[in-house]
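Q: what sequence does this backbone want?
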């Protein structure tokens, strides 16, 4: 309950951060199968007993790691539609490259771990719903075409990253255009 003091030592935010970083690093590089309690313990330098005090099992740890990194987007920091699009693409790139990485994306594409696929979809839903809401807001404000399908636009944003990865084997820093060099309307 709020306000009640828990028994034992306070939880270390530094240990939590090391566990999350360890789990995400394994996921990005080798996929969800590589995220085991043993592997996270070795990578983070945190004892397995400490991990089990914080998380029921590997799936709970993986959910916490991805959940801490994928949060619904805030309001874009710019009003210009090209700047907003650039910002949204940056958000997509962060989730796909810095959270899931090639290992997580590969596992999603071949659905090798259905529990992981469901986990990622569940955690992405609030994010994609919020992003679609921002697009709908811009459509209602007349900044985007009135017949634009917001859900399709979000899928296109996710798909452009995957397309770039498939075509070139990597997604370069120039994948997202610099909004300051864009002119005109979309």
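A:
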């Amino acid at each position: 309950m709020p306000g009640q003091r828990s028994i034992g030592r306070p939880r270390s935010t530094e240990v939590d951060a090391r566990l999350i970083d360890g789990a995400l690093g394994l996921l990005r590089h080798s996929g969800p199968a590589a995220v085991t309690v043993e592997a996270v313990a070795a990578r983070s330098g945190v004892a397995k007993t400490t991990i089990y005090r914080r998380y029921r099992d590997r799936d709970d740890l993986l959910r916490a790691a991805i959940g801490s990194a994928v949060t619904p987007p805030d309001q874009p920091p710019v009003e210009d539609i090209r700047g907003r699009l650039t910002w949204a693409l940056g958000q997509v790139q962060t989730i796909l490259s810095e959270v899931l990485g090639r290992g997580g994306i590969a596992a999603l594409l071949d659905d090798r771990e259905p529990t992981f696929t469901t986990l990622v979809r569940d955690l992405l839903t609030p994010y994609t719903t919020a992003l679609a809401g921002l697009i709908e807001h811009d459509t209602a404000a007349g900044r985007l075409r009135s017949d634009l399908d917001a859900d399709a636009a979000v899928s296109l944003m996710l798909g452009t990253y995957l397309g770039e990865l498939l075509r070139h084997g990597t997604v370069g820093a120039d994948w997202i255009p610099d909004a300051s060099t864009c002119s005109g309307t979309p």
